[in-house]
Amino acid sequence: MTVLVTLADDDRWLVRLLRFGAFACLAGWAWQHLYWEGPYGPLFWRGEALDFVAHHGGDWDDFVGQTPGAGAVQRWIAWMAWPYVICAALTITARPRAWLQFSGLAVGGLCLAALAYSKYLTAARELPMLVEHAAQVASPVLLALALACGAKHRAVIAATTGAVIMTFAAHGAYALGWWPTPASFYAMATVVLGTDEATTTAILRSAGALDLLICVGLLAPRLRRGCMLYAATWGLLTALARPVAGMSLDLRFWGADQFLYEAMVRAPHFTLPLYLALIWRRPLARGDQPEPAAA
Description:
By secondary structure, the protein is mostly helical. The protein has one domain. About 75% of the residues lie in helices and about 0% in strands. The chain is built from 15 helices and no strands. Helix 7 packs antiparallel against helix 9, helix 11 packs across helix 12 (about 195-215) and helix 11 packs across helix 13. The longest helix is centred in the first third of the chain and has 34 residues, at about 1-35.
């Protein structure tokens, strides 16, 4: 009886961890959409969109709008904040076998996928920009899957592993300079650590190599838990680096309106590795797939 209770309690805490990651990510993007504007411009400011509108007899000015709130595109972008708000609420209220709520969480994943694709277009179709959002896109879907199948189900573990590998491999590719390293990487490291350009470059290259090493180590049973503990720590530090580097007492709201949500949307970068580290803290019994636990 004690063993069964412990397993159930473990399952609840794992679900709560997935809830937190998905909620913070979706709430952060809802904040960004409500306070600023959704980053969907590249989906529409393209020749293909102009050709589509012209082909169907539409007017480009009516389609995109010339003033805030005017045009179909700007109205749609403003409306997109609310799916994030609703899906963030669903991460709190969703319960096992609540299939309608699970469908809402899947919609949240699709919204995040559209956002990731838009950022990919903004970055001139650099593959790591698309791949690095895997943990964020997967977070609401993983929560639904854990509630439906159990937090220790093999499908949840495999999907989470894939999302973590994609995210950290993309970050590693950028940090190593295989694709142009984003200026924000240099800016954060320089501000937080107070290093010069050469030292910052060396730090980024080392961090990138470690990102790729943990992706490889994740596939080795003896190494994977240690790799995930490192990944969770690194994911938390890099998420917090945004507000630490950007916020200042001289800014309105201390800059929290600009930088705090940047940490929130990256919550899956540390919650998903931590979930895997907790899963692998001891071997699971053969076929250990407990019933979904409410959390």
